[in-house]
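Milestone M4 deliverable, item 7.
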Amino acid sequence: MRNRFKEIALAGGIVTASLFFSSCEKEVFPLYDDEIVTVDFKYNELADSLQAQMYATFQSSNGNYFVQDNSGNSTFHYWRNAHAVDVLVDGYLRTNDQAYVQRLTALVNGIKAQNNNTFLNNFYDDMEWLALSSLRAYDATDNAMFLETTNILWADIQKGISNIAGGGVGWTKDRPYFKNTPANGPAIILAARLARMNNNAQDLATARSLYTWLKATLVDPASFTVWDGINYNNDMVITKNKYTYNPGTFIGAGLELYKSTGEAAYLNDAVRAANAVVSDLELSPGGLMKDEGQGDGGLFKGVLVRYLTLLATDKDVPAADKDKIVRYLKYNAETLYQKGIKRPGLMISPAWNNAPGATTDLSTQLSGMMLIEAAAQLKKAGTI
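Output delivered:
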């Protein structure tokens, strides 16, 4: 099983360390340290360069997908490429550059081609990630192909819902008894968004039901820690591994159900889970999202970044909570900008406060790109 415990021009050129000493638009860094350093954080320009570098470094020889790493391993990973779709949507929304639409179309079609000419997969969570990113691509471009992809995937994902372990979506088709947060959080987000888009009562009921099961089963009621899964060995034992992406998906689930229902309890849960992550010394040592290695774990922080950013930009989040989340994201972005990206090659480290090693996985690169894209969005909005 997988470890889930688990060309284009460089817009603005490659961002180098010399940018740190530019004299305009100064920020103060860091917020969690006594040392004060004045830095010009050019997140927009860095995001452009990272998007370009992803193609220069990770694109496969046939142009269908992004490879496993920058050291010659060309393995295709479905779920990592599903997140690459999300990152391309981020770039398109930030720039309105039509080239991103072409890249999105090529990548989604390429994922299908590499996956035996089908979008369907053994892993329900993998399909959920592609369904979510394709739905975002549809929302951004109005290209019906992306919506068709989401609908194909959602029809198959729903087959994974069962009463085993009390409810929820299974992690994989061949082990339907193991239920986990990675398969249920994204399913709730997807169902809630589809319900809102189509005014579909059945999808909303599915989202509610899955959320009720997830909160009751895998969220600690006292600490609001989000556990990884239950029934891995068909013994109803809760797997209490802590990963950044688990609270990330639960935050997203609560936020999307709030948007679909207007019920404050869902938003309150999302805010409480976010505060728990920021204060968790294991997940956020010193205020920095923990190093979860490369491989699948390299992508975990990016998921948390995505849904924390959505929460931080929601108008209904109380000001004090919003400020806490924004400061957390700001500190992580500033740390990565200064310490976790090796220039001029722009490879990203799994530890955002240290330079990367000789090999960088696509998963690790994508997490860092999600953070820089989020920081560019927040800076443009005047939030950071």
